C-alpha cells in the first residue's frame, strides 16, 4: 500500500453536497480495488479538488475515480508525510 | 480562520529529512502570523509538495513559507472538506 494525492481541475463552483456525493461514490466501490480514500479538500473558486488515499498503486485510484464518474487530472504518489 | 492547501513545485529528490526540516522551519515561526500547518505530503519523483494549513488568510501562509525559505508556487483556500 502507498499514499496518493490526486488532483481534479475545472471544478469551479463545486458545492459541499457535490463533494460529499462524489466522495460517497468513491467509497461505495473503493474496496473492489483495495483503495481507501481518506480526505478531500475543494476550492470552488479556483476549481481544484485534492483527494488523499491509500492504495496498491496509482492506477487503482484512477480506476475508482473514473468508474465513480469523476476521473482525476493528476495523481502523485506521496511517500513522504509530515 | 480558513483552511488552505499550498503547493510547491520543482522539489524533485526531496528527502524525508528535508521535508521534516522544512516543516519544522514553518512551525518555528507560524504563530507570528496565526498560521497552523497541519500536514505536508511530498512526491520526490514529480517534485510536488502539498501543505495543509489553517490561517487567517492566504497571505499569512505565504509569508511564513517565504520567511522559512521555501515560498509556495500556488495556494488555494479549501473551504470544503470531507
Q: Whole-number radius of gyration of chain A?
A: 12 Å
Q: Spans of chain A with pLDDT under 50 lasting ≥5 residues? A: none
Provide the structure class of chain A: alpha+beta
State the shape of chain A. globular
Number of strands of chain A: 5
Q: Topology as H/E string of chain A? A: EHEEHEE
* Largest interface: pair, residues per side: A-B, 26 and 26 residues
Oligomeric state of the chains present here: homodimer
Number of helices of chain A: 2
Please estimate the helix content of chain A. Answer: 25-40%
Strand content of chain A: 35-45%
Termini Cα gap of chain A: 18 Å
Largest sheet of chain A: 4 strands, antiparallel
- The strand line-up of the biggest sheet of chain A is 2-3-1-4
What's the rounded overall pLDDT mean of chain A?
Answer: 98
